[in-house]
């Protein structure tokens, strides 16, 4: 550690019997060399103690690191935040379900009433049954038409109602999947009042007054519509006593059943045939006759299937 060298002790200033410490590059007398060695040994013991403490800290590091507490705290905060998000999402879903139920219950009541009227009319057909079956299937799809939207960038979710395609039914016999092929023709037209259109589902018949011959209003007292379906049933409708038809106008005569369905919103140019549950549908041939107050046929509109 030390070697003989000329100089003075840095502790007491003695010049005789001094040694030079290569470790600390200092000159010390014999007395202070011993003290200096004790100090170095003490530093070594402290270092050994520090190393032992470090090793103990390493052994305890897995469970006692301060960041574990921070992570646990963060986890609790995130769980609480997720709970709040989920709670809000459930409230939104309940609100959507309540709104959907209100809408679906109303549609269901309309469908129930339509089915009741169809049953009472005893005028069943595959066309009507197919239409109501499609409507019911559509309502079933709307029950679970909700989806959960999760964001990949932010911690958020929301509920949306999926759009289901509205059911559209053909308005003419051109759709072979629903209606059979049908030919329509006028075999007798007298005057300017005639049958313009007949709904293929039996919901309505449209009478038109084209006003080509006269511009006077036509009193329809005593006028009737006679609809003969496949030679097994006749439906006769008599126009109201106070009803007149203006030139260049038309009137849509709804069946009682149709007046309580989607046609109920129509207010203009409408008559409701309360005595006719439905105008009915045919399989082979339907002959529609417009008859005036004198018993003359003003128009014969034939539908051949």
UniProtKB/TrEMBL annotation:
InterPro entries associated with the record: Lamin_tail_dom (IPR001322), Lamin_tail_dom_sf (IPR036415)
Recorded GO CC terms: nucleus
Domain LTD, chain residue ranges per copy: 179-305
Keyword Nucleus: yes
Coiled-coil region: 30-149
Keyword Nucleus: yes
Superkingdom field: Eukaryota
PROSITE patterns in UniProt: LTD
The entry's keywords: Coiled coil, Nucleus
Subcellular compartments: Nucleus
Protein name: LTD domain-containing protein
Source taxonomy: Eukaryota, Metazoa, Spiralia, Gnathifera, Rotifera
């Amino acid at each position: 550690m030390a070697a003989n060298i000329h100089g003075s002790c840095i502790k007491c200033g003695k010049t005789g019997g001094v040694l030079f410490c290569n470790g600390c590059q200092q000159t010390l007398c014999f007395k202070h060399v011993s003290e200096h060695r004790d100090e170095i040994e003490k530093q070594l013991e402290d270092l050994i103690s520090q190393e032992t403490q470090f090793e103990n800290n390493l052994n305890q590091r897995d469970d006692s690191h301060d960041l574990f507490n921070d992570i646990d705290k963060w986890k609790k905060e995130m769980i609480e935040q997720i709970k709040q998000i989920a709670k809000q999402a459930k409230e939104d879903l309940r609100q959507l379900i309540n709104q959907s139920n209100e809408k679906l219950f109303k549609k269901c009541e309309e469908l129930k009433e339509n089915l009741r009227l169809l049953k009472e009319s005893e005028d069943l057909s595959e066309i009507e049954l197919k239409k109501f079956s499609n409507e019911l299937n559509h309502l079933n799809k709307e029950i679970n038409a909700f989806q959960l939207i999760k964001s990949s960038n932010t911690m958020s979710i929301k509920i949306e109602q999926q759009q289901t395609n509205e059911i559209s039914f053909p308005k003419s016999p051109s759709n072979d999947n629903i209606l059979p092929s049908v030919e329509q023709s006028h075999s007798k037209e007298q005057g300017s009042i005639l049958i313009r259109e007949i709904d293929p589902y039996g919901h309505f018949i449209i009478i038109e007054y084209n006003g080509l011959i006269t511009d006077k209003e036509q009193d329809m007292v005593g006028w009737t519509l006679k609809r003969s379906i496949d030679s097994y049933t006749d439906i006769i409708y008599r126009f109201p006593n106070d009803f007149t038809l203006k030139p260049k106008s038309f009137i849509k005569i709804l069946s009682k059943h149709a007046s309580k369905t989607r046609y109920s919103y129509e207010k203009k140019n409408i008559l409701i045939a309360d005595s006719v549950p439905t105008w009915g549908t045919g399989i082979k041939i339907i002959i529609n006759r417009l008859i005036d107050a004198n018993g003359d046929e003003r128009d014969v509109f034939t539908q051949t299937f």
